[in-house]
Write a structure and sequence with these properties.
Helix content is 36%, strand content 31%. By secondary structure, the protein is an alpha/beta fold.
Length: 146
Amino acid sequence: MGPERLRVKIFTDGGARGNPGPAACGYVLIDAEDDQTLQEAGHFLGRATNNVAEYEALVRALTAAADLRAAEAEIYSDSELLVRQMNGDYRVKNAGLKCLHERARRLEEHFDRVQYTHVRREHNERADRLVNRAINRKQDVFDAEE
């Protein structure tokens, strides 16, 4: 595999206070070869559910990785529902999630390989910090550090 084939690790998270309530999503893109952070962002979504926020994080992260012309994406999320739905283990029944799921599927076409892995919350701290900073500030943020 040559250097022109960028592989990224993507950590995504979404959260809502109240569910639905004030919500945000966050993601961290890391170069899989050298573990350098390529991009991180938290986006304030207004009022949404936790699951919508999780999917928004995935869609925005896949878009960012596609913009970087990544060839492969390893996605890590603490949302078991999202991971199982994207892996095809669960059907997407919620109408509000179906369109986001379909957008994520279309974005997968930009990559040679996409892999989804469920991680425990403590292995997703940076994306979680981005979510909380965006909710607290009620605006987008681009750095996980306070």
